[in-house]
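Class I SAM-dependent methyltransferase
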Amino acid sequence: MNNPILHSDIQEFIIQNTSADLTKLALQKNPFPEMDWISILNQIEARTKAKDKLPTWFSAQNIIYPSKVSVEQTSSEKTAAYKTNLISGKTLIDLTGGFGVDDYYFSKKFESITHCEINEDLSEIVKHNFQQLQVENCTFHSGDSIHLLEESNQKYDWIYIDPSRRNDAKGKVFMLKDCLPNVPELLDFYFEKADSILIKTAPLLDISAGLSELKNVKNIHIIALENEVKELLFEIHKNYLGEITIKTANLLKDKTETFDFVLGEILYPSYGLPLKYIYEPNSAIMKSGGFDEISTIFQINKLHKHSHLYTSENLIDFPGRRFEVQKVISYNKNEMKNELVNQQANITTRNFPETVENIRKKWKIKNGGNLYCFFTTDVKDNKIVLICSKII
């Protein structure tokens, strides 16, 4: 690729100034008059963003980065690597390839990857970067992926698509029908080209809203990274009409918390007052809505139908945070004054009428420390505070 940004002196400058103060750097004189200064600064900023999110790219030589926004919007390596465990086959076409992080990891699982990207410059950047990363089983198509599919007779094992959530007419959107391309409208056409499709949607998309727009959904994958939901994936298969399984994963530094359940099963969760231990589900489970499933599968009590906190007398392994109860108090002036006024504590509210901010202000509770307080409602509809210590 004949791009002046790859000149060795410029590359060395970018590497040396990664994580530098860009505001100060921007005021300096451009040491490379033959190259646009803004472009160099953009490379530094994007490479800085990639340090933790894309360590493979960060560590490689002669990588070209797109805009900072593209780096922010792309999958992280951790979520991309996890996705390779979800699907398999010989051929995959990515209809919205972007910076290619997902395709880099899919290339380790599939014999052949086709990367489609409507932005010609970005397509060239990814092609160049894959050469630096020694990916040899990926072909690149610059332009509208629909045209490629229309003009080709090839059938793929999988279609992967991450529709753009920026609509020229509506701004930032979440419903699939408002994204580009319009997957619900094109679904039958896509099924002519592949029997299996994996659709990445906005993490904020309501699961029931996604199901109302799609058909033949077999699995819904919810992926969180360090307890923050990053990806919501709908896995659909041609003519599939069976039960839908929700599969959650919370990727942590030292482990992955998983929890799966069948959507729509009639369950009978148990309820009870706080016991010795309290459990708070991770964010992927909270997104899934599998609150009755948690009680049923782990055989632990819910504190209240809408509190989404769980309790048991004996400590269990749990996909989320675990706490030991030190004290349970009623939420009233006397109890609060005796236990928490002017104290330091981490506060969480679950099914409670006041916000964390109001509680802190009202009772003069400082943030932090080793105390964890859950302001919630119990099974008898009483407002209570669980004063706990966190189990590491």
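thats it. Residues 277-391 form one domain. Residues 276 and 313 are 5 Å apart (CA to CA). bye
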